[in-house]
User: Fold this.
Amino acid sequence: MFFATAPAAFQASLRRPAHSGSAHAVERFLSDALLSARQAGTTYTQDDTSFTLSLDMPGIAKEQLRIAIDGAVARIQSKDDAPRRYRAAYELPQEVDSALSEAKLENGVLTLKLAKKVPVDTSAELTIQ
Assistant:
């Protein structure tokens, strides 16, 4: 799932109740979330290896931004010296590998390419005695 909270220009929450077992409900939810995100100057795409978020951030320099990755949550916040206040959190459907991820700010557009963390199988087989 993709959840977002953004600055004052975009106060509508994308969080909706989860519908387990219903592929149609999940597709509808993601479609609604992506449409709302696009309306706020944010685009979201994904492929087999990464998520890509592009956010409009005119007037903010890269030194004025702080980006933090915590599991499946990406947090973006402007620092105190930035001319505009910006604060957002995006919850992605899978954990992010911060070591393989990258951020680029070019022409007022912040692009985050967030590498998907490869799930590790921690299951163990027990011997029957």
